[in-house]
Amino acid sequence: MKIKKYSHIKSTIAIARASFKSILRSPSAVVFSLLFPLIFIVVFGFIGGGGITVDVGLDNKSDTINPIYKTLNQIKVVHFVVEDDKTMNQDLEKGRIDAVINIQKNPNGLPAYFVNVKYTEASKEKGSILKSVLSNVILPINTKANDAPPPVAELRETTISGREYKTIDFILPGQLGFALLSTGVFGTAFVFISLRLTLVIKRFFATPVTKASIVLGEAIARIVFALFTAIFIILVGHFAFGFTLINGFTTVVNMLILSTLGLIVFLGFGLAVSGVAKNESIVPPIANIITLPQFLLSGTFFSISAFPTWLQPISRALPLTYLNDALRKVAFEGATLWDVHHQILILLIWGIGIYALAVKVFKWE
Amino acid sequence: MEKSPIITVENLVKNYDKFEAVKGISFEVKEGEIFGLLGPNGAGKTTTLEIMETLRDKTSGKVMIGGFDLEKSPNDIKHIIGVQLQAAGYYPNLNLTELIKLFSGLYGIDVNAIDLLSKVSLVDKAKAKYKELSGGQKQRFSIATTLINKPKIIFLDEPTTGLDPQARRNLWDLILEIRSTGTTIVLTTHYMDEAEVLCDRIAFIDNGKIIDINSPDQFIDDLVASGFERKKEVKKANLEDVFIHFTGKDLRES
């Protein structure tokens, strides 16, 4: 009998195809890699639209037919709240509103108006924003008034026209990075440990398939799935929430290349976890130890520069930090892959380290 | 006519650290026969089977399967054998057709899934998932996966454990049918009635050694000739016959 030459490509593809179908039908993969990031994006997409606003209670006794009120009312940052005195005071105490303003006509002539502002300890930061808004508003009104002395200095402000950095521009790459991390770690660890425990891999070994084909096939399935997820997330972000893709299609391609690289590194974590864990119930704790700190510290939600200085070195050690960073630079600043080679290099170093560990601890049976 | 051996095992030894699981066993399996490995739990049946299936390394000894030396060309052996593992699962979330596709890909061949499923009467379950099958259907599917590469030899490890009498008889018919196409079958079982019905020859293994090899009939005749008598008078039927008589031979599965 003639045995046809055995094709390793064919067996690898067979595994990739089976694994891909299995991923699509497993609820946890779809929830963690697609739904979860999408919810965050939708939530932040809606919150993030308006920028900063200061809620200012308008005292009921306040005069409203004056140029100061009119000007303030036109400023986007200032959001006037009208409610009864008692609630207003309570809200001010609790920081639900950031200040209360009361503009009164001066019955004794000049200055024409008194602007009484009550700030609250509960919202100091927004209070100071209002303070500077007010001084910006009142100053020109003062100078415009008749027989005012000539100004000592004139403020000349210019604003360069830059791109608007929206919340979505920060949130989306972080969510994409995190989706890749959870697909890589949770997905891979669970699959390999269950294939091992249910003897699926053992049964595979009775066929001519090689170990390399099994790992490669699983990896291909996850990469394809992750790329679909990435494209979906990017498109929803772009078309629904105006996520900035500075160079359009090229940016998307660069983001996908970075995503693939990131996923390959994270797959290494998953393989290592599956080797360390003795059964399926040990996977979540170990996988969470890997993913949760990165979820919080890798600039997924907040910029790393907002962290206390002692925490920043930890953030700067994590691989997801660099993937997120590279994705943001590519998407918003239009950086090329070469521009982010520093981030790519650190990801690669992580990759080499984690695969060295995975090879050591990975178990086939 | 004496048929040539398709499997030869000589002085096979398997040690796990200090424990000797298989202590130098030798036997031959002839082409086209059903060969049974019988013995108590832990006797070394599964270890011996898994070494022949290329799934476990041997410590020493020589194993030839279908003309290939296990040591030199395990990959050639994988192409000509079919393997059913005890309690093995299948790739999650896939239906039977997809699983067969996966396996044919692993063997690098193309297989018509429906034809294969019809051999084990599972065509109506083509779109069902493995875990949705009944015990008997699971075992029939497992056997179907051993046939994908049209093997010369198939290995079945306790294929009927846990099945009801109807499903067991159904599986016996299937095994005999596969043998009738010329496939050699090596199986393990704890059921002596099963071995008596199915096996042409049996090897009794205990403590990692072969006690004796012979046909079921010969074993029984020899024992009777030695003056052995059952404590209880043998009736012309047993309780299982009553069970089948009452409940019929029809398979009970949805």
Automatic annotation (TrEMBL), chain A:
Alphabetical UniProt keywords: Membrane, Transmembrane, Transmembrane helix
Transmembrane segments: 29-52, 176-199, 220-246, 252-277, 289-311, 344-362
GO MF annotation: an example: ABC-type transporter activity
UniProt feature coiled coil, ranges: none
Chain ranges of the ABC transmembrane type-2 domain: 131-365
Keyword Transmembrane helix: yes
Chief localisation class: membrane
Record membrane topology: Multi-pass membrane protein
Record has Glycoprotein as a keyword: no
Protein name in the entry: ABC transporter permease
Species in which this protein is naturally found: Pedobacter psychrophilus
From TrEMBL, chain B:
Domain of life: Bacteria
GO CC terms of this entry: plasma membrane
SUPFAM superfamilies on file: P-loop containing nucleoside triphosphate hydrolases (SSF52540)
Residues spanning the membrane: none
Signal peptide start-end: none
Principal subcellular localization: membrane
Compartment(s) of residence: Cell membrane
GO MF annotation: an example: ATP hydrolysis activity
Sorted UniProt keywords: ATP-binding, Cell membrane, Membrane, Nodulation, Nucleotide-binding, Translocase, Transport
Pfam family, one: ABC_tran
Residues annotated as domain ABC transporter: 7-232
Recorded family membership: Belongs to the ABC transporter superfamily.
Name listed for the protein in its UniProt record: ABC transporter ATP-binding protein
Source taxonomy: Bacteria, Pseudomonadati, Bacteroidota, Sphingobacteriia, Sphingobacteriales
